[in-house]
Amino acid sequence: MDRITKSLLNDYQDQFQLENYKEDKLFEMFSSYAVISHYARGEFDIQDVVTGGTNDSGIDGLAFIASGQLIDSVDKLTNLLTKQFQVVPEIKMIFIQSKTSPKFDSGDILKFWHGVKRFLVDESHTRRNKDIEEKAEILRYITEHPLNFESISVKLFYVTTGNYYGVKSETLEGVKQDIHQEIREINITRDVEMNFLGAFEIQKYYKKTKHRPFAKIKFERHVLLPEIEDIEQAFIGYLPLVEFKKLIVDQEGELKKGIYYDNVRDFKGEVNQVNQDIAKTMRSSKPDQLAVLNNGITIVAKKITQSRDMFHLEDYQIVNGCQTSHMIYHYFEEIDIHNVGVQVKLIVAENDQVTNEIIKATNNQTPVKREELLALSDYQKQLEDYYHSFERSSLRLYYERRSDQYAFDNEIKKVRVIDIKQQLRSFTAMFLEQPELSKLRFEDLTKQISGRYFLKNHQHIVYYTAAFALYKLEYFFRNRRIDSKYRKFTYHLLMILKYEINQEAKKPRLNSSDMEKYCNNIIHTLNSDLALNYFHRAIQLIEQLVPDLHNKSIPKSRILAKNIKKAVYNR
């Protein structure tokens, strides 16, 4: 393995605190993370995509991506269809095979392809591990409900540490064409890509996960606004979609990552009435009316370099216009992007507080749910500061109240960053004692626990404790100290853990000063060599209460949480 790839592999291992992995397994995870990060929005659990092992069908990584969202279960896919889309615009199936060898061996490539083919035709008699079988359930749902998916694409990646263009041959090109043809003959899709990645290519994919957003656009029809306090510069104008495309689409034609995360709303799909109106305009004979019928896009950048009409944006985010941007993306191929444009407000502001005020103002002009503005609340800032108060490195976590807040800081390990979703899921399980809610869609979760979280009188230590417990449990799962078969009970284990550690101690109210002592005991224990032992004790209770650990419906049931309470109270 060359020095650069080895260095990036070490960086990945360090960022995700992966211990005692052999180099080939680590490279599988590294490759899958680098490739899938290119298509999936936000961070994801690598265990949800890595499939390598015995009976893996020759596939090391497998992911389904629907509109930028990683789909790891049929439930998540059906939720997407009921809550966001009537028809999913596109779903991508991504297959990855990784080799630490520098060779592009046609025999190994064909073995990989045969595994993919068996998966696509759903040869049920083929021996598969549980990871592959769970992915097969998703594929079955897709093929049984074809009207719910506008388009399907298949992307294969064969990754080595070699130089593909140095060994590129007619044989490999022939293999690629044969694979393309055979996939098309399966009649799932005709949109097929077979990609060979060498060291340089996989390095490039991984480096992209570290880059801040940047773009260069020609913004001819703009007006410079008068001087505004705390705003370095501000422009307003009309931007043709051919230029707007440069802001939201990367060189491979995919939606850019990391440019919507400050936006308080995720993409709602065409189920949303506003988006239906945008689609109607785009499909009409007068799509150029978009500029006057739509409220436009607000972009905040940390830095802009201007030369006449050319604007170079660095570290920018779309803080209002997420819905419009996604809808425009889906219609790029159907309209004249040179003669259709959109209103754009471009603001240069380095101050986070100013950015927050802009987000609040621009997103309050149309109805926005309270939970969608959570990241901008005063309590969030206080909680972020509370996290920073832990100076010991072993206790250091970073509360990401704004998504992507720490994404480009290489000094901060990714696994130590807790986002708002992880925070509320762990809190709901551990202290509200409703672990069955923790795996709901985030929007559904916040509805279920509305009025019971992030209250002004809540002790901050409660939220940190829940997050630290989740961090430690995920560490043990990642490093195979706890069997992955218990992963589905993650949130139930958090609920049990506090009882195992504090035993007879009564749980104080969330606003009580007694919560400090109660939580500090949990934190101290989790930061000691006893942590794993306490998680194993929690697992023993799960085993006593759950006769069938493979039953997927049990973690979703309220009954298990009730039985846990009975068991701990009757000791």
Automatic annotation (TrEMBL):
<protein>
    <submittedName>
        <fullName>AIPR protein</fullName>
    </submittedName>
</protein>
<dbReference type="Pfam" id="PF10592">
    <property type="entry name" value="AIPR"/>
</dbReference>
<dbReference type="InterPro" id="IPR018891">
    <property type="entry name" value="AIPR_C"/>
</dbReference>
<feature type="domain" description="Abortive phage infection protein C-terminal">
    <location>
        <begin position="261"/>
        <end position="522"/>
    </location>
</feature>
